[in-house]
């Protein structure tokens, strides 16, 4: 009874969080292509939570069949959640409108299978729900088929989660690379919390596969381990919901493009293919742009702007951001993030040797937003710490 009360409290807490997040996300006026999938994700969690609470309260005393059948209506909402979260990350890491979804049938497969599961649940005889353990030798063909079919759907569901995890990690990797092409400071745009979720879910998925393999092979699992697993399952669901709620509701798209106005060179638009741009930008033109970039750093100290972006630099020197990006990568052999931070570290080293200013003051003066990002960039560029540089004789 104590365990049921504790589990009920966890479900109620999770339901409150998901309902609140659903409401907040649907109220977002901007970036709806990002927030609507996450709102639907929380809405699906809310519906599953309501069914779980109802089952805990009334799924006894002769109501087992009713709740097993009507509770199966929540299965599609459970199977939709990995797809909806993937849609959210897909929109969150895109620069423009995302492309149409390909292979729609594959994405819809678990949903379609769950509908057939609901039909089978309503076809099963009530006696099936009144026993704790089925006797495989005495059950009818329909019940036997349903039991096997449920195992198949579960296996496909877990496999699809694994595929979505892989696709999400690939998107996050490409997103991190793109951030360094566009921004000099990326820590406020990094999606570390999504990385944490994908890594944790991967470990949990592996544990689920082990348990499934043990069930299929007939290995007896002690009751206390099953109880512990159920408790871990509840804590895991709440932890995932809480992390997504804290970060997802307030997360802004990281690759939002600010309009560049006043550029003096009417060069190619942003939509032009990269192949055409490379052929249009000659070596001589790239060299002139490189000189403008160097001057913007050495003379105008543009790197000291903590929020500097590729678009800001392009506007400052009067060149389209496509040409600036190409010049950085093809002529200066560096992405925007590394290039700007090299100038910041160069300035910091000079100040460390020539002034008595504190390291923290120098950190912010040269353009870094945090002490940790400064130390990481400094160690990466210089191979030592700021304190060691200051301690060396000139």
Automatic annotation (TrEMBL):
HTH araC/xylS-type domain segment(s): 287-392
Superkingdom, natural source: Bacteria
InterPro entries the record matches: Homeodomain-like_sf, HTH_AraC
Keyword Ribonucleoprotein assigned: no
Coiled coil ranges: none
Keywords linked to the UniProt accession: DNA-binding, Membrane, Transcription, Transcription regulation, Transmembrane, Transmembrane helix
Membrane-crossing residue ranges in chain numbering: 6-27, 34-58, 70-89, 109-128, 148-172, 193-214, 234-249
Record PANTHER family: ARAC-FAMILY TRANSCRIPTIONAL REGULATOR
Protein name: HTH araC/xylS-type domain-containing protein
Organism this protein belongs to: Roseobacter fucihabitans
Lineage, broadest ranks: Bacteria, Pseudomonadati, Pseudomonadota, Alphaproteobacteria, Rhodobacterales
């Amino acid at each position: 009874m104590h365990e049921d009360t504790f589990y009920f409290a966890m479900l109620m807490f999770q339901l409150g969080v998901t309902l609140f997040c659903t409401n907040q996300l649907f109220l977002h006026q901007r970036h709806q292509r990002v927030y609507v999938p996450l709102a639907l994700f929380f809405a699906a969690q809310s519906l599953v939570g309501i069914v779980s609470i109802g089952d805990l309260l009334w799924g006894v005393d002769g109501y087992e069949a009713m709740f097993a059948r009507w509770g199966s209506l929540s299965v599609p909402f459970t199977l939709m959640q990995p797809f909806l979260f993937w849609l959210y990350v897909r929109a969150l890491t895109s620069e423009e409108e995302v492309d149409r979804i390909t292979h729609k049938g594959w994405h819809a497969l678990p949903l379609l299978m769950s509908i057939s599961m609901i039909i089978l649940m309503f076809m099963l005889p009530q006696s099936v729900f009144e026993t704790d353990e089925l006797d495989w030798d005495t059950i009818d063909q329909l019940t036997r088929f349903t039991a096997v079919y449920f195992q198949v759907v579960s296996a496909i569901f877990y496999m699809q989660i694994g595929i979505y995890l892989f696709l999400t990690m690939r998107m996050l990797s490409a997103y991190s690379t793109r951030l360094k092409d566009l921004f000099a400071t990326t820590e406020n745009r990094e999606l570390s919390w999504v990385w944490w979720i994908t890594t944790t879910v991967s470990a949990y998925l592996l544990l689920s596969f082990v348990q499934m393999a043990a069930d299929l092979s007939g290995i007896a699992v002690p009751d206390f381990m099953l109880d512990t697993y159920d408790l871990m399952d509840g804590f895991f669901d709440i932890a995932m919901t809480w992390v997504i709620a804290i970060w997802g509701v307030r997360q802004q798209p990281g690759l939002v493009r600010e309009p560049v106005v006043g550029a003096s060179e009417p060069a190619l638009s942003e939509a032009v293919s990269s192949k055409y741009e490379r052929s249009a930008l000659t070596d001589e033109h790239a060299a002139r742009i490189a000189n403008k970039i160097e001057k913007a750093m050495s003379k105008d100290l543009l790197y000291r702007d903590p929020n500097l972006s590729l678009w800001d630099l392009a506007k400052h020197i009067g060149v389209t951001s496509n040409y600036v990006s190409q010049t950085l990568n093809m002529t200066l052999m560096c992405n925007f993030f590394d290039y700007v931070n090299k100038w910041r570290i160069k300035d910091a080293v000079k100040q460390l040797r020539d002034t008595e200013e504190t390291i923290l003051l120098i950190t912010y003066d040269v353009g870094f937003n945090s002490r940790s990002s400064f130390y990481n960039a400094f160690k990466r560029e210089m191979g030592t710490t700021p304190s060691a540089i200051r301690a060396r004789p000139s």
